[in-house]
Specification:
The protein is built from 3 helices and no strands. With about 100 residues, the protein is mainly α. The protein has one domain.
């Protein structure tokens, strides 16, 4: 066993530069291979991030609309408009005009 270790040590000493070069080449190749194998996952994650950013922007727009509507809901004008459009109600002093023409 000692002889085998001694032979390996002698080989390493004699070919130190070549051994280090091969080690670096194999390590670099393994790193490149690992990076290439992760590429599909990276692309899927980027697509998911883009979709989530779009959804976030849509939700921000929706929230702005809700905030805008919430300020309008409590006004008298909005209440009167909804009462007339949705419920068919009119003010007691309002003038009502009926269209009796036969035009369709």
């Amino acid at each position: 066993m000692k002889r085998l270790i001694g032979m390996a040590a002698d080989f390493y000493i004699a070919h130190k530069r070549t051994v280090i070069l091969w080690f670096v080449a194999i390590l670099s190749g393994a790193m490149v291979f690992k990076g290439l194998m992760q590429q599909p996952q990276i692309l899927r994650d980027r697509a998911e991030i883009a979709a989530l950013e779009k959804k976030t922007e849509d939700e921000r727009d929706r929230q702005a609309e809700i905030d805008d509507l919430s300020t309008k809901v409590n006004t008298d004008e909005y209440i009167e408009r909804i009462a007339s459009e949705k419920l068919g109600l009119v003010k007691s002093n309002a003038k009502i005009f009926l269209d009796i023409s036969d035009e369709d």
